[in-house]
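Lecture 7, part B: from sequences to assemblies.

Below are the input chains for today's worked example.
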Amino acid sequence: MQLGMIGLGRMGANIVRRIVRDGHSAVGHERHQGHIDELAAELGDSFRGSTDLKEFVGMLDAPRVVWVMIPAGATGAAIDELADLLEPGDTIIDGGNSRYHEDIKRSKALAPKGIHYLDVGTSGGVFGLERGFCLMIGGEDEQVRRLEPLFKSIAPGVDAAPRTPGRTGEPTPSEQGWLHCGPAGAGHFVKMVHNGIEYGAMSAYAEGLNILKHADMGADHGGEHSAEETPLERPEYYQYKLDIPEITEVWRRGSVVASWLLDLTAGALFADPNLDSFSGRVSDSGEGRWTIDAAIDTAVPVPVLSAALFQRFSSRGEAEYADKMLSAMRKAFGGHIELPK
Amino acid sequence: MQLGMIGLGRMGANIVRRIVRDGHSAVGHERHQGHIDELAAELGDSFRGSTDLKEFVGMLDAPRVVWVMIPAGATGAAIDELADLLEPGDTIIDGGNSRYHEDIKRSKALAPKGIHYLDVGTSGGVFGLERGFCLMIGGEDEQVRRLEPLFKSIAPGVDAAPRTPGRTGEPTPSEQGWLHCGPAGAGHFVKMVHNGIEYGAMSAYAEGLNILKHADMGADHGGEHSAEETPLERPEYYQYKLDIPEITEVWRRGSVVASWLLDLTAGALFADPNLDSFSGRVSDSGEGRWTIDAAIDTAVPVPVLSAALFQRFSSRGEAEYADKMLSAMRKAFGGHIELPK
Amino acid sequence: MQLGMIGLGRMGANIVRRIVRDGHSAVGHERHQGHIDELAAELGDSFRGSTDLKEFVGMLDAPRVVWVMIPAGATGAAIDELADLLEPGDTIIDGGNSRYHEDIKRSKALAPKGIHYLDVGTSGGVFGLERGFCLMIGGEDEQVRRLEPLFKSIAPGVDAAPRTPGRTGEPTPSEQGWLHCGPAGAGHFVKMVHNGIEYGAMSAYAEGLNILKHADMGADHGGEHSAEETPLERPEYYQYKLDIPEITEVWRRGSVVASWLLDLTAGALFADPNLDSFSGRVSDSGEGRWTIDAAIDTAVPVPVLSAALFQRFSSRGEAEYADKMLSAMRKAFGGHIELPK
Amino acid sequence: MQLGMIGLGRMGANIVRRIVRDGHSAVGHERHQGHIDELAAELGDSFRGSTDLKEFVGMLDAPRVVWVMIPAGATGAAIDELADLLEPGDTIIDGGNSRYHEDIKRSKALAPKGIHYLDVGTSGGVFGLERGFCLMIGGEDEQVRRLEPLFKSIAPGVDAAPRTPGRTGEPTPSEQGWLHCGPAGAGHFVKMVHNGIEYGAMSAYAEGLNILKHADMGADHGGEHSAEETPLERPEYYQYKLDIPEITEVWRRGSVVASWLLDLTAGALFADPNLDSFSGRVSDSGEGRWTIDAAIDTAVPVPVLSAALFQRFSSRGEAEYADKMLSAMRKAFGGHIELPK
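Predicted structure of the full complex, as structure tokens:
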């Protein structure tokens, strides 16, 4: 099959590479001619591209399939512009991190023009080229079926993990790493929750490792606390200088918390054992927030996922006013004077 | 009655003042002769004191009542020293912030010597002199009954709040502001949970006011966010420059969140509207931690109280390593570069 | 002044009573003639009313002031219907619990018709008649100034609480219990956060009291735990049978956690000491959710307020599927068998 | 080498199997002769055992190595009894889930007798036989070195996971799945935090999947809510009937949340798609609690890990009194009547 790709950043380019490897061809669109040329040099005849959107559309065979893989903020405008150039029967795929609300609106808006729309939540990050991308897909059955060959090439394939006990015979799409989750928006909905879980799991590791980091507190700080701070009651229990890079490594094999995130964490700690290259200002990029929003809409308690999100806000100093307020109250009722920060 | 007071800091001195006002007398012990002299000058014949513990004990009429009102860290040693000088029938009161575990141990240790022991959780802070102190008492019935006249003088009295509907006749001790909660440790247990609640309620206000503080985000920051941070989706909803000192003031009358803490908060904000005199490094002094400990021991879910405690830890930078870990993971799987802090 | 009131439920009727007491007059609109007649019998010449909206509008003197005090779900339609009957210069007040987004939309929609709009977040509940209502107001300066006499009558007045130290001279509106918070929506925004804080403070008390409730665990349950549940490590520390109604009473005077919520809690526990009349299914009515929403929009960490909201969801069984999932995982990796529920 | 094993339950027996497979021999002790006979029949000459502790000790070659693998509650007594039968130079290993405090005490108590002590936190659960056990070890260097051949056989080995980028040459112990973490208690400390992380990660998945479960709320429940519960504001966004077993399967390959826990979750959902065999009463077995304890001692904020623990408490009904209190307050200030549970 042929795939049109708008956006040849890391994710877009790697998706193109994976399908070309599998015998498909691709046409790319990007602002920078250089990116297009580089990819063409690498992939040969299977890839062409244009910085001009109209020309790009012209290079595609009808019924066209155009995958949009650009930052969420720019996706809406790009799809609008693209839709004006497409014809009935063509399909637009939003593979970025749009909010699923947008998918519902867009698919409705495109329907009268006869343009199909799929939302494909795409996980895999910088490792997608080798590891394959996990695809969570929303939209019409017929379109998903039509594009199955592409999804198969982009997804990791069944060999990427041992089969779940009890699953036999021809591997299902889910076992290959791609899934038609439901109608428009279902793909991004599932991807959104995936990222919400990711935030929670990341914080679980980060908090636990922070406890390990403090395990020498009895050795370092015993007795140094001021009257305003609680002294360590049992310093004899906090005398461990733990080697956190080695601990994350040992957990990778045989333990209950083994995971791909842990693999990456062990790698990051091996490369930078004290994390000196980081300051700890943690961004968040939408899905974590929307996950909590969806939970609140549907009255689902998410204390863990929300705590993870709020920790990111706090890491960026957003609790400062609240903290000052606490200090102001403590001074007001107890005369407590703040220690210098 | 006569009360011996060890520790003439703000709390100890104000307790002495309240009982002397009510016709009792007091004997004080303190390291600094100056503090004793000042209080004696203020209170006249009803107060004497000594910097020498033995002399102090000698000034008391048997059966002696000695209230220890010093920092929790020093209380144990002071009680040991005191116990050696007392006689069977005397009573020691720990009015500080000891962990209730200590009360159970101490009352057992003192019993063979015939020395009685009461733990009196004392709330009221710097306002206790005028407002009265709320007393939560643990220990033997007989001793509590014996010292009732003192507790009555120290506590606020029934007029400090409207009577609870349905409560009529002679006000109970609880309505006067003091309560015999149970055997040894019960007073400090109840005081401990009181402080745990205090942490939670303080954070409830602080978090809410922080939202009010950010209500102008659409006016100030709309569009300025980097690609790594989620932009404000609906800036039109965050255009309010709210006057937080005035808002805390208006809530003091008629609203559901009216409270003494709110009174203090409104006062603090009136005096320092932007809280410029605070940096937001919030101490914690034991009871909040022990409250969570007790909850965990007894399997009581305390998501709110624990979140309040952890926020204090975070305000002191204790999440830093965890935050760096999150940034390291984000870089590892997504290539995300940290924004400068 | 004259006030039109749509909705003569508890809140609406009590607002009418308070203004009539102060010499104003009122016109009411309600579906039930009976409610109108009762209020008319009580208030005499100062109150009239009609079950017919058009007739009701006809009873009002221009420029009319109509306060809408009905459930949030019905407010939008009622205001639309009302607006068709009003004239330029008239003012509509939404005193209910609308989301502030609606205020921004409505005030814009009404402006071309020359109809003014105020949103008035109203706190006070069933006690508003005697205690006064705390009013948080959004809208145009001029309208707020015009209606000041009504706000003064509805609000508690400065005597409802001691003045904040440093505040002298003529009491400000905030000291009287009403405040012009900002433009359209600002009143409901502040009321929303007020309720968010209310949720957090309520949970702080509830969690703390639950710890007190479990303080006898060592006496009751020591040793009865199964191998699958952690036994109580130190039963000697959990031997207290605490009298929770008395404890809430004692905290009302002199303690740091004294508050109106605590007054009510002590009253509820005096009337029903074991809370036998409750099952613990806790509703939530919108503002708590919107508060978290606003926090997430503006990146404000609210771990305490969100934990309080999620606890309400959990109380209604909404965590059940997640809990089953945890049990399924525990069985999968550890062979742990669930204890019967 | 030869290993003595006290406790031939699933974990103990599988450890014995793994070392025997690698050419070591084992001696077992158990209450039930049947278990010993079964294992002897399976393992042939390499395994013997006795129900009599003294006889068991007699079967071991000095210097003896005895691994104790029984429930945490029984470990202390078993070690005391064992220590009386051992000789200087022998080594006791606690491979169970003891609190690390105990290790520090025990190693000190055994030192004067010349008996060595190692604590070995052991993760792997029911899959340990095939997957290998992850071993976190505390104690003296020399003893750890001496027993390295056994640890190697029990641990998964380096092939159990791809090597971390940058790690080359002879695999370290951590890469083989075992690690000497530090002095006495360090092994159980690291295992404790491992389990704390496990709780957090489990809840992250469980909460996220619960959101997926509720994604059809707009289809099912739209409009059915009572006045006391917030209606679903945007039912059009919650129309998805998601296939959660398939979604957990698709995430296993290529996604950021791929993990061993997810593998197990997908397996559990494939076997029981609606989790009908579970009621959702989730036990906790000590380590999760101790993790929070350690965090509080060292002032480490752990909002995610604690929320996960508290959710387990709530799943067992432990929030009930707090929930009733919330309902009582709501009735008191707002007249809100509880909906039936």
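Note for the exam: The beta strands of chain A are 2-6, 25-29, 47-50, 65-68, 91-94, 116-123, 134-138, 178-182. Keep this in mind when comparing with the next example.
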